[in-house]
Amino acid sequence: MMLPALRPVIYADFIERALREDLGRGGDLTTDATIAADALADGFILARAEGRLAGLDIARAVFEKLDPALKVVELSIDGQDLAAGQRILKIHGSARSILTAERTALNVLARMCGVATLTRAYVRAVQGSGARIVDTRKTTPLMRALEKYSVRCGGGYNHRFALDDSVLIKDNHLVAAGSVEAAVNAVRRGVGHTVKIELEVDTLEQLEQGLEIGIDVVLLDNMDVATLRRAVELVDGRAITEASGGITLDTAAAIAATGVDLMSVGALTHSAPALDLSLDLVS
Amino acid sequence: MMLPALRPVIYADFIERALREDLGRGGDLTTDATIAADALADGFILARAEGRLAGLDIARAVFEKLDPALKVVELSIDGQDLAAGQRILKIHGSARSILTAERTALNVLARMCGVATLTRAYVRAVQGSGARIVDTRKTTPLMRALEKYSVRCGGGYNHRFALDDSVLIKDNHLVAAGSVEAAVNAVRRGVGHTVKIELEVDTLEQLEQGLEIGIDVVLLDNMDVATLRRAVELVDGRAITEASGGITLDTAAAIAATGVDLMSVGALTHSAPALDLSLDLVS
Amino acid sequence: MMLPALRPVIYADFIERALREDLGRGGDLTTDATIAADALADGFILARAEGRLAGLDIARAVFEKLDPALKVVELSIDGQDLAAGQRILKIHGSARSILTAERTALNVLARMCGVATLTRAYVRAVQGSGARIVDTRKTTPLMRALEKYSVRCGGGYNHRFALDDSVLIKDNHLVAAGSVEAAVNAVRRGVGHTVKIELEVDTLEQLEQGLEIGIDVVLLDNMDVATLRRAVELVDGRAITEASGGITLDTAAAIAATGVDLMSVGALTHSAPALDLSLDLVS
Amino acid sequence: MMLPALRPVIYADFIERALREDLGRGGDLTTDATIAADALADGFILARAEGRLAGLDIARAVFEKLDPALKVVELSIDGQDLAAGQRILKIHGSARSILTAERTALNVLARMCGVATLTRAYVRAVQGSGARIVDTRKTTPLMRALEKYSVRCGGGYNHRFALDDSVLIKDNHLVAAGSVEAAVNAVRRGVGHTVKIELEVDTLEQLEQGLEIGIDVVLLDNMDVATLRRAVELVDGRAITEASGGITLDTAAAIAATGVDLMSVGALTHSAPALDLSLDLVS
Amino acid sequence: MMLPALRPVIYADFIERALREDLGRGGDLTTDATIAADALADGFILARAEGRLAGLDIARAVFEKLDPALKVVELSIDGQDLAAGQRILKIHGSARSILTAERTALNVLARMCGVATLTRAYVRAVQGSGARIVDTRKTTPLMRALEKYSVRCGGGYNHRFALDDSVLIKDNHLVAAGSVEAAVNAVRRGVGHTVKIELEVDTLEQLEQGLEIGIDVVLLDNMDVATLRRAVELVDGRAITEASGGITLDTAAAIAATGVDLMSVGALTHSAPALDLSLDLVS
Amino acid sequence: MMLPALRPVIYADFIERALREDLGRGGDLTTDATIAADALADGFILARAEGRLAGLDIARAVFEKLDPALKVVELSIDGQDLAAGQRILKIHGSARSILTAERTALNVLARMCGVATLTRAYVRAVQGSGARIVDTRKTTPLMRALEKYSVRCGGGYNHRFALDDSVLIKDNHLVAAGSVEAAVNAVRRGVGHTVKIELEVDTLEQLEQGLEIGIDVVLLDNMDVATLRRAVELVDGRAITEASGGITLDTAAAIAATGVDLMSVGALTHSAPALDLSLDLVS
Q: In sequence order, what are the residues at sequence separation of 6 or more whose Cβ sits closer than 8 angstroms to the Cβ of residue B153?
């Protein structure tokens, strides 16, 4: 798996704000009162449940941001499967620092691993088909870059990052434009040549109109399996096909079997449970 | 329900960043190309599933931040139950603006309602007992204020907001301090008089030590129902009792029946699925 | 001309920082010492040279940000041609406020109009051909959204907004990947389905390899007119063609005549002279 | 040439924002898909045209900010002349990092060198006279510190940095105050003793009034060469003289010959074309 | 004295802004013009008056932020007494950097030491009694974390950090709630279990009502010594007692002798004179 | 008194951060639990001691920022004297909002009035002489603009705002440059024409050297009254004279009588006690 580079310049500010959110104005009252400033310890982050790793660099950066003197060693790699009980990060240094940064690091990492783990489940559910699992824009505010990266770690692919990087013509745009043809033409006149045009269709009639005027991707919205299969036949390679709407782990395989190229799942980012992680301190 | 005031000064910056995350540098390519700048519309946010409302002011603020000319009317109140299909926010004005702000508004609101709805389920599960459902610090980074407010909307209560507003002595602090007595005394020497002291205990022995030295709250960690019951008897009103660790909707009633004062549930904020919401446009 | 919406949430922070840059810690020493706090005036921004308007909303926002009590009226519309001497913005209110905001407003507006005016010149130079003038990523740091919008006001089109919204395979990527085929396949495996793939080629051989493997756009780098013409014939509609490299107002027409679809010009944003604007005060 | 220190604390935030503007949410799609995470390379920034160097530290900081593991070596010094083809910065390390930071680094550096190079042309045009070339406040928003430093690298001098560091009484201030005398007296009463007073005059009559009341600097606005010469004689060393208004490379020498102390040129910062730079990768 | 950890993540942004406030856009004009870029020097911060040290890490961070190449050595420890003339920080490196950072470093450090020194005076005034000196929320905006830490360095203790970490029921809250009982009950219903409840009382009657309903802390507002003594007797250990209102160094001992647990002094942070510090340069 | 305009763009961000510092993540626990969301009240800020007003707009802005629905009326004007007991600001609206914003508003206003009041005392002490009282750069970090404005409200004048708006050659610069002449010449070569040059001298010999080479302002550092008098005679109008160093309210008149033009007092901003203010609520 060739993962994209998640640059610190993208998440450094996020980490700092998250630490300040947890430290407040007074810092870690409990730790500062009970643990000596010069006490040293080793800490290990470990998975308490089986899952897929995503975000190890960011967890590491949380500890290093709180205390640059901490020595942090990554014991696995994003995109790897984790066994329950597996150690994934070692932190050596000030016991105070390790405990003070713990919760912020875990909160970010558990969410990212949660997204990767749920994505992996969908990817496995469609294995053997040619369908790719893709995400949506239904992400946690201010975490889109982190969550879309986590989807990649889970074996999924990214749909558009935001409103400005590709076109997705939905029902309201069609109504405003007057017709599929008018909408697509307006987009062609207005947007740059680097932008792909995707059309959301509810019916096979709309699909035919879209294919006629020519589009790059067609989003087949909330269609049942039979309709999806006919839609794929109708498209016949003239556009990329994307099934969308209420796809669950139970229905994923059947949908994938229709031959769609893509299956987009909002739940990957809006409803993934956190992976269960903990930090063990060895003093 | 007397809800705390969630001040715009707390979430305004969050909203702006979230909008910028979705608009990027080029804005809403699709909408700007297909819908006229002067087209007007009415939009309604509605619940597609039954749930509990939290965050309506913030959703409203998203639309008003994107376009101050939009007229936004709240059709319900935070803390209210929502029926499936119920309209909760009306937006009138530029059709472009409504569609461009839609996803950011829904992403925040669906997450907040998700937390409130899951909290409500736990609150209902323990109804009739005296136990309060409380949250933890296992929140989404940068959303702690919003999520803890959502817990309140769901009928739950808040545990500490951060590391600097109350003391929670855990295992690692005890080890460093040497004993329960030493740890509690160190805290008393070090922290201010406005700060409550909570002690996490794994065993009834630890609990007795804590009660002897005197603590405000005791966190009973991962104890089974029988042990919890004995712990409550042992405490006998000398401290507030909090059950914690893997509490599910299935086990909640039994735990509440032990007589504990509080039950803390990390899942309220780290694993609540988003409530299903949508925006309907009426042009 | 259907212009995209340039949302305040994109430029509000930019404007505030720009005002603070000019006011420093002490504000407008001269104005505050010589003009009474309650003196009123009318100010007009006018073009001192012929050109194309871009950024009027932003100029307006500068005045309103400095002093919300100012009444600002826009006297033209972005994308319109301006005659020398034409008034484009009227500001009524505190004379102090008008003078203090003047330079910041003019600095932003003059640069945006400069970009629009230069773009217009290129667009006129290729008029009658089917070629579109497009911008590049060679923009002023922190002004990309404003400058790409200005290009639209000048009649041009936007190339990609940033590194994350489309693929442009250049020489270094080809070398690293080993071949055109390997590079394109790596991209197809790695990036989402909403992303178009553009290939930069120096020779007709590379072009043929690209067409064979299948690409969306081909960037014909620094080719002379004869080679461009052959490249267009070779492509024969199988990809969008973009001429790039040192295109000047003198050479633009000849290049457009080769039949290329796009001509990208870095100078639109990195070297456009500011349009000459001034503010007249009528007290 | 003794250059001022351009401190990272001034430009660090600017650089981070510029990188985020170009990386967006998804980062460098092309590079991350085609180049292995562990591939190493050497990159060289070189001048493709003759010019004057300004901003090398900032370019270096862009690369180091994106990837602290890069080794960056400066091959020249700000304020030096550059030959076409001359290498000015060497970067060793991750090939991905070098390519991802390239455009942001070049965009800043090309603009700064552009300002320095145009300044140098004006300085050379007045060589032999005693006149200094000075800048104005007509700078790119948020780049004032960088552009005024670039003017210094080009051999020019800085006019005031902002509204709060010296007084420049213009026409509108005179009208509001009632007379030159009233305006100057108001300023003397109001502003601190560290602030110099400059008066803009359109006519020799105004100049005489200014000299009578006593001013530090006189801005001779849009005067022809003959009038400038008479103004210089009239001043006779009682104030610093500054010629301003539409000074071009063609007219600069004649204006300098009038004996003015300073010539201020807005074009140095508002209309300097970028210097042509490129990055070569050697893998 | 076991001091809390004052984490860089809390003050790093503050320091950067403070440096930018003093450097402006042009930096240190005087130093950059008179001192060579490669001149080295040793600088020492020393106390010119006797006092208590607080904030040495922050002063160090100011120098390191301006110029990471400076070598800074701390010669004392926060919470230590300083003799007049004592050296407390050594800085080695660029003479320019030392002089440019000097004022910002001294401004922060002198204020923090001032707070610590005044706190120490109050602590000494009540020595021998059991009373703790505590601070208030009357702090310098944006310096609360730093000033409350300084109070600790002076031997004092912290009252609540902010509005969200404990409850203090004042007169206006009582009036709104209707009675002491109603107010306390409302708070118990509304706030979390980790929050202590403090009641401000003006009279012994109010005190009795408070004790009856049960509160954690009682603030005895502006009572004379005789009344305070009776209040302490009345409370008889049922709540923590805090004297507040106009306590001076002259009256502190008598108030402490009444047996109150706490004495809160707003002047610690709102009116502490800066400690006299200077920087000596040895070149 | 013609006061400079203190623009919201300068202090808006400061106010927001200050409010967030006091509200934390949970807001005003006490107020939100005891006061109904729809309860209305009138609040009055009043002076509890005699003093000079500065910062009323900022106090108003704090309330309006927390709750834009509050109606705030200013009852006095910056620069006016305040009697003990005088009402200076009226706030009408949500009782919750008034109480929640109270402390932040008072903290800013009390500090600004404190600076103005102490400045007024110095100004009165030198009344009848021609000497101006001026401030220094010894200000509270991030409050320089507010504190220097407060000095103006107190009748004082501003020294330079920061390192970049005028030159002050001190001992270390002289040592580095080699001589007074060398230092002044270096500055003349290096800095812009809008910048005044001030020289700090310890002895009359240094003063003579400075006068010979020509300087704008001379800072007479820590001289006794007799030496100051001789220095003023020596200068004889050739430069502005500034006495500095340990000037107290007791010594001010005598120093003013030496004929110096300026007396700079660091204590105005680093050690001014807060003015005693309070907020009364009338429900």
A: B1, B3, B52, B53, B54, B55, B78, B79, B112, B116, B119
CA distances from C38 to A25, A257, F11 (A): 42, 75, 21
- Residues from chain D that touch E36, judged by Cβ atoms under 8 A, are 2
How is residue B193 written in tokens? 């008089």
The residue type found at B126 is V
Strand partners, E263: E133, E243
Q: How confident is the model at residue C1 (pLDDT cuts 50, 70, 90)?
A: low
| C189 interface with D at CB cutoff 8 Å | yes
Look at residue B49 and give its three-state secondary structure. Answer: coil
Q: How far is E64 from chain F (nearest CA, A)?
A: 17
Return residues 5-34 of D near B (CB < 8 Å). Answer: 21, 24-25
On whether any CB of chain C is under 8 Å from the CB of D186, the answer is: yes
* C166: helix, strand or coil: coil
User: Chain centroid to CA F44: how far?
Assistant: 25
The residues, ordered by sequence, that sit 6+ positions from D15 with a Cβ below 8 Å of its Cβ are: D58, D61, D62, D65, D104, D108
ipTM of the complex: 0.96
Would the pTM of this model clear 0.90, i.e. be above it? yes
> What does the alpha-carbon distance between residue B72 and residue B45 come to, in Å, rounded to a whole number?
11
Q: Does E196 touch chain B (CB under 8 A)?
A: yes
- For chain C, where are the alpha helices, taking DSSP H only? 8-23, 29-34, 56-66, 95-125, 144-153, 171-177, 180-190, 204-213, 225-235, 252-256, 267-270
C138 carries an active-site annotation: yes
DSSP string, chain A: --PPP--HHHHHHHHHHHHHHHHTTT--HHHHHHS-TT-EEEEEEEESS-EE---HHHHHHHHHHH-TT-EEEE-S-TT-EE-TT-EEEEEEEEHHHHHHHHHHHHHHHHHHHHHHHHHHHHHHHTTTSSPEEE--S---TT-HHHHHHHHHHTT-B---SSTTTSEEE-HHHHHHHSSHHHHHHHHHHHS-TTB-EEEEESSHHHHHHHHHH--SEEEEET--HHHHHHHHHHHTTSSEEEEESS--TTTHHHHHTTT-SEEE-THHHHSPPPP-EEEEEE-
> What mean pLDDT comes out for the span C128-147?
97
Q: Note if E212 is an active site residue.
A: no
Task: Give the tokens for residue D51.
Answer: 């010019």
The residue with tokens 């990554």 is A74
Averages of pLDDT over each 10 residues, chain D, 283 residues:
92 98 96 95 97 98 98 98 98 97 98 98 97 98 98 97 96 92 94 95 96 96 97 97 96 98 98 97 84
Calculated CA dihedral for residues A229, A234, A238, A242, nearest 10 degrees: -30
Give A22-34 pLDDT, tens digit per residue: 999 999 999 999 9
